[in-house]
Amino acid sequence: MSIWSRITDALSALTAGEGLSAVFDRLRSPPERSVAFAIAVIALGAKMAKADGHVTRDEVTAFREVFHIASRDEQGAARVFNLARQDVAGFEDYAARISAMFSAEPDTLRDLLEGLFHIAMADGFYHPNENAFLERVTEIFGLPETEFNALRMRFVPDAPLDPYTVLGVAPGTSKEEIRRAWRRLVRENHPDAMIARGVPEEAVQLAQKRMADINLAWEEIEGRG
């Protein structure tokens, strides 16, 4: 059974009236945790796409970019997205449930938040309602405001990219300590590490832009001497 069939089964249970608690309880263990991650991206992404008043084709395309969808799975993926939009549960319910599931794995929550930023910027405009949505999700996930600020800086082209923020270090930190932070981020964002923490293989490409930003930040700091 493909991941899309398993995701569709879970979302169909939601739309049929099964509670969030029951559905997510069935998704707590590998390999179903990857289904839970995918549902979180789909459900929160579908609801956020309506935060600015409408769902654009660009936003749907961005969702397809978060998950590399094979042609044989396109129909199933489209059904999943539509099911998520039809579900009456609010986004805060989804965010709270997925936060509880991955409470001991903040890296997974960061992966998810990054996917949502990618969808938010798909139409080239960062709507104030999308900003409020993502701020609230960050809060529910229990991630620090600095995480939100770093992602916003990387994705929204209204402020220069600060390499220290990207690497999570303060200006004035020793070069060796910054190097250690850079190496740690590279390890944490290796595809094998992402899959191990529940990110579906279809979504591992989430790390591509992140790795480019991480390496660019280190190169910029290293070049300053």
Question: What does the model show?
Answer:
The chain is mostly helical and 225 residues long. It has a domain at 3-159: TerB-like (Orthogonal Bundle), CATH 1.10.3680. Helix content is 68%, strand content 0%. It contains 13 helices and no strands. The protein has helices at residues 3-15, 20-25, 32-49, 57-66, 74-86, 91-101, 106-120, 128-141, 145-155, 163-167, 175-188, 191-196, 206-222. Helix 1 packs across helix 3 and helix 3 packs antiparallel against helix 6 (91-101). The longest helix is centred in the first third of the chain and has 18 residues, at 32-49. The protein is globular, with a radius of gyration of 18 Å.
A few lines on this structure:
With 225 residues, the chain is mainly α. The chain contains 13 helices and no strands.
